[in-house]
Here is the input.
Amino acid sequence: VRQDFVVRTVATLDELGKVYAFAAPILGLPVGKHTLEYYTQQFAIAPQLLVFAERDGLICGCILASIEDDHVLVGPVAVAADSRRAGMGSAMMREVEHRAKETGRTTLILGGREEAESFYLSCGFQPNLFIQLPEPDSTERLRSLNQQYEVVWESQQGGWSRLMLRTPQVDKDLQQQYQRRFPGCSTQYVFVKHIC
Ligand SMILES: CC(C)(COP(=O)(O)OP(=O)(O)OC[C@H]1O[C@@H](n2cnc3c(N)ncnc32)[C@H](O)[C@@H]1OP(=O)(O)O)[C@@H](O)C(=O)NCCC(=O)NCCS
Here is the structure.
């Protein structure tokens, strides 16, 4: 394994702009809240959570994380196509975990992309199936489809019913069952890691 890269944290807004511009075409940014404006705000709050890797002065990977409520939200994770499977993603994730501890947070959360699931699992994240239905008072119905997994969180608010199930592995079958049984329902895998 070539470990000829260094992992650093973003030191200036100019550097943040370059790191964001590196990740944008790989991930199709901006997506959701993950705009350059959002990370510019985060730079003032917790700059140590904005991590990148470089080789010969060129940016070749990044993980942009931020403080959200009581946890650290791991946002864009990207490694240049010609630098993958050399431990760069894992090295950056270890740095994010180390830096997250400095902020006093002990939980990392990320909304997974299907193609990166094995990467999150190899970093020690636990998969959780997040189910959202745009109907009020339906968590009981949502629960009824699941016989096997622990319900770690649920909520009925603002016309939505939401459920989070802890699954030891990514369970695509159950995900599809929810989609079929509850039209309008959206499901996503959320990955969680507790650090101590
Ligand atoms: C996902 C990504 C960040 C991984 O970065 P990386 O530097 O290649 O990851 P690492 O080399 O540290 O991989 C660590 C382990 O994760 C797993 N893993 C990583 N990529 C994998 C892949 N494509 N398929 C299967 N397992 C994979 C492996 O277990 C790997 O260990 P191994 O190489 O010893 O088998 C990188 O592939 C990427 O940028 N993908 C495109 C963007 C993306 O999907 N980002 C995540 C969404 S926010």
Summary: Residues 52 and 62 are 4 Å apart (CA to CA).
